[in-house]
Amino acid sequence: MPATPAWPPRSAPRLFVSDPVSEGVPITLDAEQAHYLSRVMRVGEGDAVIVCDNMTGEWATRVTVAGKRNVMLEPVEKLRDREEVPDLWLCPALLKKDRFDLVLEKATELGVARICPVVTRRCVADKLNHDRVSRIVTEAAEQCARTALPGVEEPVKIEAFLKALPADRALFFADELGGEPAAEVFKTRGTPAAILIGPEGGFDDAEREAIRAHPRAKPITLGPRILRGETAALAAVSLWMGTMGDWQ
Question: In this predicted model, what pLDDT tens digit does every residue of 114-123 receive, in sequence order?
């Protein structure tokens, strides 16, 4: 007798929805998500869709209506609770759009809890399109099977960021002019934590002095090479996740 196929199948499409999911309450998708499922993924009635709501966790649902602009889902089974997210903030200076898009996408995949963009004197941008940001982090979370979305803050100037940093949060400052080896420093500080990364041209002297004077800032080095802003951000997060986060 052939084995019964696993349900839901691993290949089932994944979506984040805005409202809490609960058993017995149908889910009506918005037009964009309905188009994606019906026209791109070609789902039909009875097919499985994995749904996350960023609140209760991950659910297996079954398609009950599969129109071109109207797709409805029936929650069948809760698969996982919302994941426990390591308390790490990534605080990158704004970069050129395509490079910052990469930071948003990969930081989401790597598991950060919050992304707090900062604006410095050498930044080439000072604002974000939040519809675009939301789409990037949501699609990244769907691709890597996260059940939690990172929070993304409004960009703030570096001076305001330093002033508002919570008193209980360690600040690791990736300084291209040098610091202590990052992995060693990470191990000496617990959570909560924040990693500060500079822009394409680096921090200027006054900014660097202000950061180093902050009582909770610890300058770190990410090795002998000077890294691009996006590379430094992702390298630092990866190293922190491997030593202090949920990769252990």
Answer: 999 999 999 9
pTM listed for this prediction: 0.92
Q: So what's the pLDDT on residue 10?
A: 83
SS3 150: coil
Of the three residues 47, 81, 115, the one that is the final residue of a domain is 81
172 & 136 share domain: yes
- Above 50 in pLDDT, residue 233? yes
- Non-local (6+) Cβ contacts of 162 within 8 A are 210, 211, 214
Strand 118-119 vs strand 88-92: parallel, antiparallel, or unpaired?
unpaired
Neighbour count for residue 110 (Cβ, 10 Å): 22
Q: Which of 34, 53, 81 is the last residue of a domain?
A: 81
| Total structural domains within the chain | 2
Range of the domain at 178: 88-243
170-174 and 217-221 as β-strands: parallel, antiparallel, unpaired? Answer: parallel
Position 22, amino acid? S
Q: What is the CATH number of the domain that holds 45?
A: 2.40.240.20
Does residue 9 sit within a domain?
no
How far apart (Å, rounded) are the C-alpha atoms in residues 226 and 176? Answer: 6
Q: What is the rounded CA–CA span in Å between residue 201 and residue 210?
A: 17
Q: Contact, 221 vs 172, CB < 8 A?
A: no
